């Protein structure tokens, strides 16, 4: 039997993992978090996701058509779906439909394609859109439904699409927002008297965070990305929270509060691990994650926004090229220069 001689490089197609495969795994990893959010916060999560996916696919197709790129080829990579999914998870379940429309369209058209499309955008598109929405529409972006008080599917659908049904009495601030804007109360009084900080509400947020953590562990097990960025972010955030809570427990939120409420776990495992907008070297990813964690705490504790994941990620996106510049591994085959080595003779 004759063998076919082929020059290197060689590749085993059965082990090939393209963009589509990675995006599919990311989507699967969000399922536990989506189910938990739906269980505690109602049908609005699923409705937002469905509408966001529709807007993303239409926006992506229109821009690809205008750019004279093959629509079907690029739609199949799943990047637009992941962007829409992550943004929809960050938007409150009872947010009006136009909020999702503006955010997703801006993420795809401006934050992604105006920089050249997939692989060329310097900033995470979902976080760019989230920051835009939070700055422009702060009230709509900070009113979350209280756990297990959401209306039926029909009622939620009518409220989101402005069909005459309102549920203002069911909405509340997030735990991070409630803690940030509290004053003249001890920590115990705050948790007893604030609806957004009562036990059942915190359990809901903590369960959602743990579900996203489970999804992140799944992605680590599948080797979709390495542990460096998530561990760097969670570790630095934990250290900052521990230091300040020990210094003044009544002013600064406890460690578990920072780790298991808000978008911490979603950010650690689904946002900062974006290979395009984060650092690329192993050491760089760890530094990138540390920077995000520190900025998240600083903005939460001393800034004007309660959940700072989006702003922290965007600021570190600025720094990613600089981090890569000074964290590149040495070239294979070259040893590090050491002091005291004899000079090479001519």
TrEMBL record:
The keyword Phosphoprotein applies. Its EC number is 7.-.-.-. Its main location: membrane. Keywords: Cell inner membrane, Cell membrane, Electron transport, Flavoprotein, FMN, Membrane, Phosphoprotein, Translocase, Transmembrane, Transmembrane helix, Transport. It comes from the Bacteria. Its cofactor is FMN. It is a multi-pass membrane protein. It is found in: Cell inner membrane. The chain crosses the membrane at residues 21-41, 47-66, 73-91, 202-220, 227-247, 253-272, 284-302, 308-326. The complex is composed of six subunits: RnfA, RnfB, RnfC, RnfD, RnfE and RnfG. Part of a membrane-bound complex that couples electron transfer with translocation of ions across the membrane. Belongs to the NqrB/RnfD family. This is Ion-translocating oxidoreductase complex subunit D. The lineage of its organism: Bacteria, Pseudomonadati, Pseudomonadota, Gammaproteobacteria, Oceanospirillales.
């Amino acid at each position: 039997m004759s063998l076919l001689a082929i020059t290197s490089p060689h590749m085993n197609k059965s082990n090939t993992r393209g963009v589509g495969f990675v995006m599919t795994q990311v989507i699967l990893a969000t399922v536990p978090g989506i189910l938990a959010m739906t269980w505690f916060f109602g049908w609005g999560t699923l409705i937002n996701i469905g509408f966001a996916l529709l807007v993303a696919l239409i926006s992506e197709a229109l821009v690809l058509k205008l750019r004279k790129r093959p629509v079907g080829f690029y739609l199949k990579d799943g990047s637009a779906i992941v962007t829409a999914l992550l943004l929809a998870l960050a938007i409150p379940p009872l947010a009006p439909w136009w909020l999702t429309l503006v955010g997703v369209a801006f993420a795809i058209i401006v934050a992604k394609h105006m920089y050249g499309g997939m692989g060329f955008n310097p900033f995470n598109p979902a976080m760019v859109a989230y920051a835009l929405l939070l700055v422009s529409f702060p009230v709509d972006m900070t009113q979350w439904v209280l756990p297990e008080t959401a209306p039926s599917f029909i009622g939620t659908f009518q409220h989101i699409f402005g069909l005459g049904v309102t549920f203002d009495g069911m909405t509340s601030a997030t735990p991070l927002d409630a803690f940030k804007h509290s004053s003249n109360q001890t920590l115990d009084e705050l948790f007893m008297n604030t609806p957004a900080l009562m036990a059942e509400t915190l359990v809901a947020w903590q369960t959602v965070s743990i579900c996203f953590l489970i999804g992140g562990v799944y992605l680590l097990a599948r080797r979709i990305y390495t542990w460096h960025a998530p561990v760097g972010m969670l570790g630095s955030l934990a250290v900052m929270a521990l230091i300040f809570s020990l210094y003044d427990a009544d002013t600064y939120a406890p460690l578990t509060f920072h780790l298991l409420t808000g978008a911490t776990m979603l950010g650690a495992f689904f946002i900062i691990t974006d290979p395009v907008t984060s650092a690329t070297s192993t050491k760089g990813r760890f530094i990138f994650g540390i920077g995000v964690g520190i900025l998240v705490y600083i903005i939460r504790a001393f800034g004007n926004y309660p959940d700072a994941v989006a702003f922290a990620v965007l600021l570190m996106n600025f720094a990613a090229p600089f981090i890569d510049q000074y964290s590149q591994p040495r070239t294979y085959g070259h040893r590090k220069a050491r002091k005291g080595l004899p000079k090479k003779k001519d």
